[in-house]
Automatic annotation (TrEMBL), chains A, B:
This is Uncharacterized damage-inducible protein DinB (Forms a four-helix bundle). Keywords: Metal-binding. Transmembrane segments: none annotated. Belongs to the DinB family. The keyword Metal-binding applies. A divalent metal cation binds at H47, H125, H129. Coiled coil: none annotated. One of its GO terms (molecular function) is metal ion binding.
Amino acid sequence: MSKSNDFIQYFLSHRTVTNELIEKIGTEHVNYQPTPTSMPARKLVNHMLKSFYQFTAAAAKQEPKQLFDQEEDASLTELAETYTSETKKLIEAMSDEDFSETVDLTEMLGVKLPAEKVLNLAMDHEIHHKGNLFVYVREMGHTELPMFVKQGG
Amino acid sequence: MSKSNDFIQYFLSHRTVTNELIEKIGTEHVNYQPTPTSMPARKLVNHMLKSFYQFTAAAAKQEPKQLFDQEEDASLTELAETYTSETKKLIEAMSDEDFSETVDLTEMLGVKLPAEKVLNLAMDHEIHHKGNLFVYVREMGHTELPMFVKQGG
């Protein structure tokens, strides 16, 4: 299996769960924040989706596109669908060699890393914030929540 | 660098942060739970530390040791220190070849996986629950929290 197929499977095993949680956030809860210093739900979701897309664009050496004219007018589900499919496209276009290319993240993180490491960092960032989101969604009143990762999905 | 050194660095880049959060949990908060269906703080911490140790023992094909006579008498900090150092020892003893060995997790997860995949799954599990823990600790009143990962640590 190619590295990009492999990584897409890994990406979707977590992103599918992120998107299931996003679907549970009712419009009355988009500004929910567990404490005054926490990111509100909508901001957290946006941060997750956008960071992954930007990390992937950097790894693929592509310019990230402006995916929405007015991001604030889109529903969380629309954001989730668009960012997920555009992120997937970027990964699909990467060859095995692209995974070893050095990516200059000096501005974002102060380091240069192989593309594969950038993608793994993006995954860890997603899993971390999805872990936050699980607590948010439970606090919104949901008690039937998925497993943290969807194996073979 | 050997695979075990590489993985220890990755493990500690997250576990150091887990342990910093654990240190912030005062004795008055060990039973804190965000909602009635959430794991209480102490149970969550115990689950994180123990799962990683058990996943690693499985990956290293070692019998996990009983590390405490009375786990419930130990402080969270004692649990964190002991589980972290014993987990580290298990990884240190693994050769590069051990990372490719097939590990039978039929009882735990219904699958057989290469040891390296078992360790990566353990990392994802840690990052997920550390993401939960960040919200718990903020809800306990802490506003100065570390980054989700400690690079070069």
